[in-house]
Backbone:
């Protein structure tokens, strides 16, 4: 067959052409490759439709759909007719796989961003960068004394010790949002004290 995609529906196939999928599933559970071919043709378009709505990217969706179909071949024996129809069971597997792919992609992206932040230091705005270049000056020390204790601790740990917001929060046993707020407020006060323009 010369279908554009293995997941494209067969326009010639109608409801009357579909066999009892529960029976087909039983045959697949016993290793019947022809039965799996029937199952594949019947369910691949459904699986792909569910996956692409979640994943959105066509290439990744085809990959995930293929993984789902492989799961069906391997896990056919787990299907229980009393727990629902084959299509419902398959749709559930497809949806879970699609969500897992999206979560995995997000986690991978988060790890890459965290790694980049570690490699390039905590990302601060222009004010913070200008302050950092002058940390050793008396003016900075004087301005640091004008901060609250928590602001001074947060700014000092971030700049002198190179800690991230999360690490500062752990050291101070303070909530992360509080640390971020104190950092922002501290940088604003330092900017005003030092006359740094943005």
Residues:
């Amino acid at each position: 067959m010369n279908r554009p995609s293995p997941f494209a529906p067969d326009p010639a196939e109608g409801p009357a052409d579909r066999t009892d999928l529960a029976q087909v599933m039983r045959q697949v559970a016993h290793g019947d490759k022809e039965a799996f071919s029937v199952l594949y043709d019947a369910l691949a378009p459904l699986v792909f439709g569910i996956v692409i709505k979640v994943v959105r990217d066509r290439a990744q969706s085809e990959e995930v759909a293929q993984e789902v179909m492989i799961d069906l071949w391997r896990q056919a024996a787990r299907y229980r007719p009393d727990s629902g129809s084959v299509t419902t069971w398959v749709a559930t597997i497809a949806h879970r796989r699609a969500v897992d792919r999206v979560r995995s992609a997000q986690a991978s992206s988060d790890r890459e961003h965290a790694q980049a932040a570690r490699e390039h230091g905590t990302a601060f705005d222009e004010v913070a960068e200008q302050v950092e270049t002058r940390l050793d000056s008396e003016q900075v020390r004087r301005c640091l004394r004008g901060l609250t204790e928590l602001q001074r601790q947060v700014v000092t740990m971030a700049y002198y010790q190179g800690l991230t917001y999360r690490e500062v929060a752990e050291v101070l046993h303070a909530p992360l949002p509080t640390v971020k707020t104190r950092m922002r407020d501290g940088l604003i006060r330092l900017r005003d004290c030092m006359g740094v323009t943005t």
